[in-house]
Amino acid sequence: MSVLRFIGNILWLIFGGIIGAIFWTIAGVLVCLTIIGIPFGLQCFKIAGFVLWPFGYYVEVGSFGAAGLFGNILWILLLGWELCITHLTIGIFLCITIIGIPFGLQHFKLAILAILPFGAKIISLKNHARSSTR
């Protein structure tokens, strides 16, 4: 199964993963230019890393305190809803074909992360499988 994830990640990189990660990184750098934007920039960097290599990981929206709630509300109002809709739209179009379904599912994971990045965790399926068998 890990060979399929590796192949999926390579195809993802070739067909847009690198470009997506570059855009998320640029957005993070631009947001970090202001002191107030640094927490939002850090979330952009987290998403950039996930966009680069998404197969084999899942997103878990975790618990977040008052600061995380406030950050998520600001994020949704400023950029989150547009990014979420973009990833959902791309995911739906990719899921129209059988070949595109795995890539569409990755965009659905990105949509979750794009709407609620504060408190979200990106967890490896490999580590999750080891911890659940113990």
3D architecture notes:
Helices cover 73% and strands 7% of the residues. The chain has 5 helices and 2 strands; from the N terminus they run H-H-E-H-H-E-H. It is mostly helical. The chain has one domain (2-125). Helix 1 (2-32) packs antiparallel against helix 2 (38-52) and helix 3 (66-94) runs antiparallel to helix 4 (101-115). The protein has helices at 2-32, 38-52, 66-94, 101-115, 125-132; strands at 57-61, 120-124. It has a two-stranded antiparallel sheet with strand order 1-2.
Characteristics:
globular, two-stranded antiparallel sheet, mainly alpha, single chain, 134 residues
Low-confidence stretches: none
Question: Count of DSSP helices?
Answer: 5
* Overall strand count: 2
What is the H/E string?
HHEHHEH
| Helix-strand category | mainly alpha
Q: Rg, please?
A: 15 Å
Outline type: globular
Write down the overall mean pLDDT: 85
User: Strands across the major sheet, in which order?
Assistant: 1-2
Tell me the major beta sheet: 2 strands, antiparallel
Distance between the termini: 20 Å
Quickly count the domains.
1
* Fraction in helix: over 70%
What is the percentage of strand-forming residues? 5-15%
Please write out the topology.
Layout: H1 2-32, H2 38-52, E1 57-61, H3 66-94, H4 101-115, E2 120-124, H5 125-132
Antiparallel strand pairs: 1-2
